[in-house]
Amino acid sequence: MSQAQATQPKPSSKIELPGQNLSLEETLRVMDVAREMRDQREQAEEMFRRDDIRLALREKLMRTARLSGDNVTEAEMDAAIDQYMDNLHTYADPKSGWNNFVAHCWIWRDRILYSMAGLATAGAGLWYFFG
């Protein structure tokens, strides 16, 4: 019997599991998938936080309205919050006026100074040659 056991081939102990020997390209592909899943999870968590923040804001505003004696319904409060959130990150051009002009001059100060220096140099050159 010992010879029969000795002649039987031993089962291979080198079983390769899927993903055990990944190439660099495959490893990077798996990492990209993991990164994308993390980004999507964070995005979903942020959306849930927004809903929670919105609910907390509505409750706070409703308490404030009751304390001030305003009879505001939840639908009206939701509409007001919707309008506020829709206009929260919108851009509007500033009004024309002196402050706006000074701000533009400050932004364009290099161009203005170089243009004035060029005009002064050209004027001095013309005055020197023709004056």
Q: How does this model look, in words?
A:
The chain has 131 residues and is mainly α. Helices cover 73% and strands 0% of the residues. The protein contains five helices and no strands. Helix 2 (24-68) crosses helix 3. The radius of gyration is 37 Å and the shape is flat. The model has no long low-confidence stretch (mean pLDDT 86).
Strand % is under 5%
- Helix fraction bin: over 70%
Structural class: mainly alpha
Order of helices and strands: HHHHH
* Rounded Rg: 37 Å
Number of strands: 0
**What is the mean predicted local confidence, pLDDT?**
86
Residue runs with pLDDT of under 50 for 5 or more positions: none
The backbone outline, from C-alpha atoms, is: flat
**End-to-end C-alpha gap:** 125 Å
For the biggest sheet, the summary is: none
Q: List the total number of helices.
A: 5
Concise account of the structure shown:
With 131 residues, the protein is mostly helical. The protein has helices at 2-7, 24-68, 74-86, 98-107, 109-130.
